[in-house]
Amino acid sequence: QWKQLENLYFREKKFAVEVHDPRRISVSRRTFGQSGLVVQTWYANTSLIKSIWVMAISQHQFYLDRKQSKAKIPSARSLDDIAMDLTEMGTPKVSKLVTLEAKNQLIMASNGSLISSGSQDSEVSEEQKKEKIMELKKKEKFLQEKLLQKVEELKKICLREAELTGKMPKEYPLGAGEEPPQVRRRVGTAFKLDDNLLPSEEDPTLQDLESNFIIHQKLVEAAKKLASEPDLCKNVKKKRKQEYADAVKKLQEIENSINEYRIKCGKKPTQKSTLALPGERIP
Asked: How many other β-carbons are positioned within 10 Å of the β-carbon of residue 216?
């Protein structure tokens, strides 16, 4: 019977009903020091368990409302009493709507109980309080560690962005009174060499020449980026253009050396610099 109910709760795939039966000595392992407490348990998938729990909570609330309404029925009432009752009935309706909204939010969780749903005749045992507090503390500790880990990752990403752009992003997390770190911009230092730089079974002299060509090709690309940067003063821009022209010239010289060696070995010459730098003119 509903008057014997102690608690209704679910956790993940488990649904349990705790009933107080004074005629029976409790043999349950979840007595919490209360005599005559019997626990009935069912298992199913999580969505079904949640639905069963919600229906049980609603049915129990219906029992409480019905019990309360029977207790409030007067023998005889005047018109003033009826008007006063109708005025007071507006507030409970609003509170019930708030309670229903809270229940709908509880359905989204992975566990819930009659106590957390706002029941009127539910009592929280000390064991359940301690268990819930310990669970919440563990969850808080885990979330704090996760937050610190994500903050460190964000700092590394912001520092990397500052090295590339020369400006510290506003998303960099700062503590109370902490100043953002000073980062010097890195320009033209990050590039990846091709895999064909590894030694092969071909002529080692030709391999060294081609490896040197690939390295200088990357240097030409970096020099071009430096020369094409905006907001440069006239002298710096002129110097970088000259460095870029020298790099292109050296690249062409390396290719000429490769072609001379290839012709000497009876192979066809290549035009790598022409393909890599289409339309470029050497001053």
From this structure: 19
- What φ, ψ does residue 160 adopt, rounded to 5°? -65, -40
Which residues touch 10 (CB under 8 Å, ≥6 apart)? 16, 49, 50, 52, 53, 111, 112, 113
**Full-model pTM:** 0.30
Backbone angles phi, psi at 231, to 5 degrees: 55, 45
Q: Are 252 and 276 in contact (CB under 8 A)?
A: no
- Tokens read off for 64: 């409480």
**Contacts from 25-31 at CB under 8 Å and sequence distance 24+?**
none
Strand partners, 8: 17
The token pair that represents 11 in the structure block: 């956790």
Give the three-class secondary structure for 182. Answer: coil
Separation CA 133–CA 130 (nearest Å) = 5
CA contacts within 13 A on the Cβ side of 39: 15
| Per-residue confidence band for 100, with pLDDT thresholds at 50, 70 and 90 | low
- Residue 10 phi/psi, 5-degree rounding, is -135, 150
| CA dist., res. 67 & res. 139, Å (int) | 39
How far, in Å, CA of 249 to CA of 252, rounded? 5
Dihedral over Cα of 99, 104, 106, 112: its sign:
positive
144 backbone dihedrals φ, ψ, rounded to 5°: -65, -45
Of all residues in the chain, the percent with pLDDT exceeding 90 is 11
pLDDT of 7 above 80 = yes
Amino acid sitting at position 195: D
